[in-house]
Amino acid sequence: MTRFNAFALLKNALNGHKGWTEQWPDSQPKKEYDVIIVGAGGHGLGAAYYLAKQHGITNVAVIDKGWLGGGNTGRNTTIIRSNYLYDESARLFDHAVDLWENLSQELNYNVMYSRRGVLMLAHNVHDVQSFTRHIHANRLNGVDNRWLTPQECKDYCPPLNISANARYPVMGGALQERAGTARHDAVAWGYARGAAERGVDIIQNCAVTAIRRNADGSVAGVETAKGFIKAKKVAVSAAGHTSTVMQTADVRLPLESYPLQALVSEPVKPIFPCVVMSNAVHAYISQSDKGELVIGSGTDQYTSYSQRGGLPLIEHTVAAITEVFPIFNRMRMLRKWGGIVDVTPDRSAIISKTPVQGLYVNCGWGTGGFKATPGAAHTFAWTVAKDEPHPINAPFTMERFRTGRLIDEAAAAAVAH
Amino acid sequence: MSYRIPGRGRIDRAQPIRFTFDGHDVEGFRGDTVASALLAQGNHLMGRSFKYHRPRGPVAAGSEEPNALIGTRRGKGQFEPNTRATMQELRKGLETTSQNKYPSLKFDVGAVNDAAYMLFSAGFYYKTFMWPRNFWHKVYEPFIRAAAGLGVSPTEEDPDVYASRNMHCDVLIVGAGPSGLAAARQAAGKGLKVVLVDEHSEAGGTLLSEPQAKIDGVAAWDWLSSTLAELEAAGVKVMTRTTAIGYYHENFIGMVERLTDHLDEVPQDTPRERMWRVRAKQVVLAQGALEKPLVFHGNDRPGVMLAGSAQTFLNRFGVLVGKRPVVLTSHDSAWYAAFDLAGAGAQVQAIVDTRAEVRADLLDQAKALNIPVKLSHTATATSGRLRVSSLRVNKVSGSTVSAGSEIKCDAVLMSGGWTPSLHLFSHTKGKLAWDDDLTTFLPSDTPEDCVIAGAGRGLWGIEAALADGAAQAQAALDALGQAGDAASYAVDEDRPGTGVMHKELPTDKQPGRAKAFVDYQNDVTAKDLRLAVKEGMRSIEHVKRYTTNGMATDQGKMSNINGLNIAADALGKKQPQVGLTTFRPPYTPTTFGAFAGYHRGSHFEVTRKTQIDAWAEENGAVYEPVGQWRRARYFPKSGEDMDAAVKRECAATRSSVGIFDASTLGKIEVVGPDAAEFVNRMYTNPFLKLAPGKCRYGLLCGDDGFIRDDGVIGRISDDRFHVTTTTGGAARVLNMMEDYLQTEWPDLDVWLTSVTEQWSTIALNGPNAAKLLQPLVPDLVLTEENFPHMSCAEVDVAGIPARLWRVSFTGEIGFEVNVPAPLGRQLWETLWEAGQQYDICAYGTETMHVLRAEKGYIIVGQDTDGTVTPFDAGMGWAVGKKKADFVGMRGMARPDLVAKGRRQLVGLLTEDGSKLEEGAQIVLDPNQPIPMKMVGFVTSSYDQGTVGQPIALALVEGGQDRMGETVYIPMPDRTIAAKIVSTIFVDPENNRLKIGAAA
């Protein structure tokens, strides 16, 4: 594996780029693995990386029905933040941000973690109350988050319209300066390269059709498009399709899958310095390093596995953006797309053991899984390796829906993740 | 020097039009695009590329153009970047600017990147800029961001308006070239609604570039005008400047019509663009094909362009793109470009074809025109700084590339053949099938009711396109039950052709160093694609994302197929094994404003106002938004701030009477034989035995057992309930009710009707409320005995038929008068007049909040947050213990919901008398380190009330068992101590609710 650095780049520039090697091999399945991870997104590849790096478990395969990073990892709007209300969420997402800050160096792959700040806008009294509650809770939890007046919001994000005559005037905002964005593809590729370097097999275009169990109920392996593969442990991290995969092991998950759409504008020179989220009007926006405005929509109203998405929701999303940022009205949409997100009743994730011995699941990230990638991958790997949860993901069980010990961020704040 | 050819083109020479390009005046004609007008001046240089800032000119003539992107401006606020010069029609006064250059288009310092070409290979930024650790965000990223981007964003608010319309039709035909026109003729005159759209300023497609053709003996352009007249007469709606941007479920097509960008003056109130939402029974996609560039070193120099586009510039705009062009091709079609340009006076330097054998008639015609022909040749380089000046060509035998020779030229017209335009087809999740003979993807199955016609199915030539347009349209008509025969067409001087496909052209140089561009705008070369494959990117999606091939503003129209061919070659696979990336809407970049349509400014969302809102406005109300409603928050008298006004309103209501507009409360009429059973199952409280004429406070939980909504429910008669909800919860509650009724209890005989906007609701509260109201209600004696608290009646109030409720959200004697909505203001003014003797006070939501908090009444969503059970809220009394079932019953029995230590609603009084901040967190030990263990938070806090000191409500762990204990609220600057008390601060005995006691 060629190390990435400026010297190697220069050397290869001079020799016609002859020195670069493949970042991960195209593996074919072996007969048996210690751990099979279903789903080669950032979470699954990251879990494989940490299994190999931190737990010495290298006889691992990551299997995906498509190309790695092709699900929600490669379709999201890359917002990273940790100003969550509840202690459990704050710890998990802050753990992720800690890992984000060093991820490029950790992986020797520039994932472009950009601490440009995430500003969440308040448009009504209820928003103000909710954000104030978040800011106080974050402060006592040691999580960065502070209140900005409308003018301070405008200073931080000049394209913002803070006119009192707006349909929903900006009443202020909550700013997490440590938050930001990262390059989504690079996260998947960096983890894939790091995992492959440590011996993990990455098997693409190979759908897992069923999880098989032994007579004693424990996990036996997976049926795939390329035949049965035996495994001591199976870890499922398949986002919108997790529930259907888990069903084959007779594990029913409290998940609903929805289409979620996003879009980008044509590229322009830097105009938008940070990330802005406005839950009241449903606008989420940042500008990519390439210059495109990256805009997220809300989920479609109905559960579906279709990735086409509808026009009306996009019309609403764009209207919301031009409401908050009227100067973008003449910008043009370049491309829009959809993904399938899996949503739990309390809108928080599940990173957990399951009733099936040797079967683990990491799912339910809804619209906010990208930001958790390193934290989720790290704690999921721990859970799989030690057969017990890391203290950080211990509250994120499947059990909580039976006991009622929920971590209900959405209910608490009416805030999208 | 003019390159305009007299007698050619469809421009109107009687209408010269001046515009500016980078501040210089340029003259063109009506019918020109910016690109054709600049080319007519001999100016090919129109832009700089994304990464290397290489000088670029137009490579195409249509919406697929990747290079010639410009800023366009009409007036203040009317600027847009990245406009395709090939699509922007001239208008008087149009200001255009080139992009991505500094200081000028001709001399751009950014072009130093070009020298470092080998350094900026695919994915270079993933491999460096990692140290020092914090430099990415502070140093590298700002540098990269500034270098990236293309044009500049608008910075002013857009003064233009945008519109949207819905349309239903029987047949929608996308593309008004020969096949689309033939399809429209086939469908016309049958009583069907037929719509034909084209993105260009006029219909015709290929016919506009091929005037030589004769259709059924008629010259192409004459046939075009008579056909359009015929279609118009037959009622076909022909829409130009209209782009079908996306194909959605169930034959739903989004289309954007550009209405004013081509006009010198914009008529008043004309929208700039209009979004059409079309539901078509059948769709005919007749979008034609796109010409492929050839991939060779230097294929991006200004003057190198697609042969078909050169033909378009000549025949449609009368512009010769070069006087000494050379043609480089692997397809027959470019030979005709050579002949057309030669016919217009160009000295065609050579036709260079990669093929060893070419049709004899083409060779004969070249010979007749004295055009030198070089077969079995490749191109290995171009030269020229801002404009191509020569092409280097080399003989190829087998895999040997011989030494090259230079051909001097001022333009290179290239063709790598054609690829069907299948973007919209792909939006349908339609499958593509590789055709080995045509070496291209063709459409296969689609789940939608749609057919593809003409070049979109790989049929070249006008005759084939016409015939297929008719045949495919007939297939669509068959599906509509309109059987018939497809019309046939005979075309003379047609130009069907064949060709071969190439990856990058063979070269005698080191291919790894060639600047052979595949994606022009994003500066992706064949070398980049091969490097991506070498680095393990095997999926075409990975190749795309790693190199950014196909991600430019042309969305791969120029680059996807060439990129695929090269990637497939590098992978050692066939094209269908590699596959294409998914085409995404919109077909071409589309103005945000067109999506937003009417939903801008005050129309972004409707502002819901009550019938009494105007009175509030006249009386100086300050508003707050609550959902889509605007509600009067308080009524300041002169000089009062919110606190002073609210204090006054609170005191007046507690001492005499206050009047409040409660019309925004959600109202749902629940009617039917099973109405009582339904309400009883939805709400936690028992409702079966509630007598008509009585109301009851209802708590609504989700199936998880947490409070979702609340409101007073009145039983009007045995089979009729008037349910009220919170203002923000109305739609949610109705949806939830419908969900249960339709999916869980379809056996219940119940109808649900939203009546929120059918009733105006006025609340009267205070010790004098009954006295004020009684004279206006002659038919009902308002005494404690006859009309006690929680009664309701249908009775006239001030002569208006009303639903009168005896309820209170303040702790005072209270009435809510519901009258037909339009009579709300009349009643309000009557009550206002009648109340003058009691110094009646109008109050807003803020006073309402304070008064209810003093009485310990919750606001759902403020004192609860979706994690609070009725028991947590101290409202276990509202849960029917003997009920067989209700929504949330099992949820609230879960172990954690009945465990000790849950957060419970309590009152708080601060020890120092200060007001707490809503949302502030509560701890037991204020001296612990961060992260602190938080046991709750302040949900409501007020100091304008009548208690004599600030009060607060809070959710605190085990709060109901902590009465009298002290807790702490750590603020950034200090810690506040507070005592836990009851949530009821005023009149715990409920004496003030009684009419007798108050009187």
Short recap of the structure:
The complex is a heterodimer of chains A (417) and B (999). By secondary structure, chain A is an alpha/beta fold. In chain A, 30% of the residues lie in helices and 24% in strands.
Can you describe what's shown?
The complex is a heterodimer of chains A (417) and B (999). Chain A has 417 residues and is α/β, with parallel strands linked by helices. Chain A has two domains: 25-78 and 184-254 and 346-412, 3-Layer(bba) Sandwich (FAD/NAD(P)-binding domain); 118-177 and 257-343, D-Amino Acid Oxidase, Chain A, domain 2, CATH 3.30.9. Helix content of chain A is 30%, strand content 24%. Chain A has helices at 6-15, 42-55, 87-101, 103-107, 125-141, 150-156, 184-197, 242-247, 311-324, 373-386, 400-403, 409-413; strands at residues 32-38, 60-63, 79-80, 118-122, 146-148, 172-176, 180-181, 201-203, 208-213, 219-224, 227-236, 256-265, 275-278, 283-287, 293-299, 332-343, 350-353, 359-363. In chain A, strands 1, 2, 8, 9, 10, 11, 17 and 18 form an eight-stranded mixed β-sheet that branches. An eight-stranded mixed β-sheet of chain A has the order 5-6-4-13-14-15-12-16. Chain A has a two-stranded antiparallel ribbon with strand order 3-7. In chain A, a hairpin with a 4-residue loop joins strand 13 (275-278) and strand 14. Chain B is an alpha+beta fold. In chain B, the strands form 13 sheets. In chain B, strands 8, 9, 12, 13, 14, 15 and 28 form a seven-stranded mixed β-sheet that branches. In chain B, strands 42-43-44-41-35-45 form a six-stranded mixed β-sheet. Chain B has a six-stranded antiparallel β-sheet with strand order 47-48-49-46-51-50. Chain B has six domains: 162-289 and 420-492, FAD/NAD(P)-binding domain (3-Layer(bba) Sandwich), CATH 3.50.50.60; 293-416, FAD/NAD(P)-binding domain (3-Layer(bba) Sandwich), CATH 3.50.50.60; 502-573, Arc Repressor Mutant, subunit A (Orthogonal Bundle); 613-658, no CATH class; 661-852, 2-Layer Sandwich (Gyrase A, domain 2); 898-983, Elongation Factor Tu (Ef-tu), domain 3, CATH 2.40.30.110. Chain B is elongated, with a radius of gyration of 38 Å. Strand 16 of chain A pairs antiparallel with strand 32 of chain B, so a sheet runs across the interface.
